[in-house]
Amino acid sequence: MLLFWILAATAAAYAILAAWRISLGTGTERAPTLVLAFVGMSAWAVSGLVQDPVVIVLAQLLRNLAWLAYLANATQPLADAPGSRSHSAALLALLAVLGAAAAITSAVQVTDSSNGLPWLVVTIALRLLFSMGGVIYLHSLYNGLTSSSGTGFRLILFGLGMLWAYDLNLYTVGLLGYKVAEPLAAGRAVVALLLVPLFLLAARRQEHWKIALSRKVTFQSLSLVAIGLYFVSMSLIARSEMLFQGSAGPVLAIVAVAALSAAGALLLFSTRARAWFKVIIVKNLFSHRYDYRAEWLRFSATIADSAGTALSLEERVVKAVADVTESPAGLLLLTSDRRSFDVAAAWCWGHRAPPPSGAVRFPDAEQDLLEQGLIVTLDPEAHRSDASVDTIADAWVAVPLIWMSAMIGVVILAKPRLQRALDWEDFDLLKVIGQQAAVHISDSHKQLELEEARRFEEFNRRFAYIIHDIKNVVSQLSLLASNAQQHGSNPKFQAEMNRSLTSAVQKMNVLLSRLSPDRVLQTAPPASIDVDALIGAVVGGRVGQRSLSVGTPCAAHARGDLEKLKLALEHLVQNAIEASPVDQPVVVAATRNATHCHITVTDSGVGMSADFIRKGLFKPFVSTKGGGFGIGAAEAKALVTGMGGSLRVASTEGHGSVFTIELPLSDARD
């Protein structure tokens, strides 16, 4: 009897609530659907008084569909983007299908008494899914409301959430087969009656709000739905013996548990499966592939090394670009001249084939696209002899780094676990990320140049003291020269002059030993250089200093500046001598091909690490030798590059180094 009066009071309260809302007028577009929702609540309470199973099923369907209609009418015009609207519509449509399916199975249960138990279990499972999906959807809406939203819609979401949360608990208990479900079903009317004041307050307030459904909330909601589906599936499996006679129940349970375990393991441990699942979600629920705010925050955190990964700036740049497309690895190429690049950093490239140690070049067509700031998808089927970038294993996409309208480098991304065709959103985001990465790399290089300038300043300060010593020597020699006119024939003066000259030479040698040889050369037009004669001259001048050997003559003539090339080769030979043990020879050799001549200086010294070669070898004042200024290698590279050639090095720690000068061949008649 108490339940009868509670249902009657609930039906009357919601009917009055609907009439009162009508009397207020349709001040907003959502008023008619809110009235419909109150009518649905009243009809649902009346069906409990009638006690007709079919009427109860139809009334509950009307109540649920009315609330869904209100939510659809309330959220669609106010979502922040078309992607949010399509996402909301898809979830509401899914809830409507679940509610209708539950009504159909419930009606079949009423009419088919012989198989009532299986249909009852299916009906409870569908209603459980509806309640679960409804609560999750309301939760995402509530979190998606902006701070300027009013409290009216928030109160409706809260009240409807309480209603569906109660149903969620009720159907969970019912699906598990507990008898307490019957008194809990009677308590639904009590909850609905208690919510009347809340709906009354919400319906009176002005409804002004803005909804912004985020990707994070969407993925959280889908995760909760997946957990709920897993729970419902396990509950149905637990009751399979009641639904199926004989051995079918246990067999079905084993198969279902094995399938669920396989699906769970696939999503938990397969990166490819998770990537595919994410692509499907983004493609079907969002109009934009990326959450640009989240991408920007991620990029900033990676560049700033907020996670404390201890990666170098170059490696962090590669990681920041690779994270956009979920690429597992990448390379950073920095320009060495206008058309070629050097590998400056590698991120997670260890298990792949090593990148090329020499210059990397792109085909002319791809080079032009990169210089325009366009993303280039590398063709894995192409095998062009003029593009060494094709030799990089797993190379997938090239992202140019543009700074002040100039390309300072390229990021090569490896193929992702789930390879897909890139679209305009990928290109736009990669382009912007590449530009920001170029700014950071350029700033880093400027900082290094500033540090180098400070080192030059320190060098100049120390050089000032050396100039003072040179001035003293010059004064001594000047005095000798002036006295030689008067006392040049005096044997005692001659002996003293000899001692003074010897002392001056010793002092000059000491000064020279404190400075790397660095003389200013006049710029000469390119000419033909006999490479074999040049090597003989450099080696011949050091025969007494060290064991040197010369390779087989190549009869090549290179095009360049003889004095500059000789000085560059002397620097390399001197460095090789200083780096090698006394009993190990230094080999100077030359070879040629159809277009170029190669001069190599090979030693068996301590070698150099790849990191030092990349960052310090050709930098002034950076040296692995104790007391070395590090000027020789830097000047050699500058001299060779100025002649249109290139200087490369291959070295292994503990096994020596090989420096190679490459120059174009010249006609011997030049």
What does this structure look like?
- The protein has 670 residues and is of the alpha+beta class.
- The protein has helices at 2-23, 31-50, 53-75, 82-111, 116-144, 151-175, 181-194, 196-204, 215-238, 240-243, 248-269, 271-285, 292-303, 313-325, 364-371, 424-487, 491-514, 531-540, 562-579, 610-615, 631-642; strands at 330-335, 340-347, 360-361, 376-377, 395-403, 406-414, 527-530, 548-550, 557-560, 586-592, 596-603, 646-651, 657-664.
- A 6-stranded antiparallel beta sheet has the order 3-2-1-6-5-4. Strands 8-10-11-13-12 form a 5-stranded mixed beta sheet.
- The radius of gyration is 41 Å and the shape is elongated.
Topology, please?
Blueprint: H1 2-23, H2 31-50, H3 53-75, H4 82-111, H5 116-144, H6 151-175, H7 181-194, H8 196-204, H9 215-238, H10 240-243, H11 248-269, H12 271-285, H13 292-303, H14 313-325, E1 330-335, E2 340-347, E3 360-361, H15 364-371, E4 376-377, E5 395-403, E6 406-414, H16 424-487, H17 491-514, E7 527-530, H18 531-540, E8 548-550, E9 557-560, H19 562-579, E10 586-592, E11 596-603, H20 610-615, H21 631-642, E12 646-651, E13 657-664
